[in-house]
Design goal:
It is built from 2 helices and no strands. The protein has 105 residues and is mostly helical. The longest helix is centred in the middle third of the chain and has 82 residues. This is DUF883 domain-containing protein.
């Protein structure tokens, strides 16, 4: 009976050892997969942040160019009004009359 109990004990110990090995290997695979997934996510987040920064800079440049263009047009209009005040008033009246006609229709 002692031999039988010893065999059961030995078989149980071997089963536990095999199960422990299988669980350890599975845990290692899961850990490795998690590290890989985390690295990929971090890389993707870094790329997204870089693209967002580039888009922000392009937006600032476009805004600056638009403001510069608008200021140039405004300067040109001011110069025209200073050089030709009578024609400027006539143009303003004509534009107002035309806008009024369009809006009444």
């Amino acid at each position: 009976m002692d031999a039988s109990a010893e065999r059961v004990k030995q078989a149980t110990s071997e089963a536990v050892d095999r199960t422990k090995d299988v669980v350890d290997r599975a845990a290692d695979k899961v850990e490795s997969s998690l590290h890989h997934a985390t690295d990929k996510a971090a890389y993707g987040a870094t790329l997204a942040a870089e693209k967002a920064e580039e888009a922000k800079l392009r937006g600032k440049e476009a805004y600056g160019e638009a403001v510069d263009t608008a200021n140039d047009w405004l300067d040109t209009a001011r110069d025209y009004v200073r050089e030709k005040p009578v024609q400027s008033i006539a143009l303003a009246i004509a534009a107002g009359w035309l806008a009024g006609r369009i809006l009444r229709s």
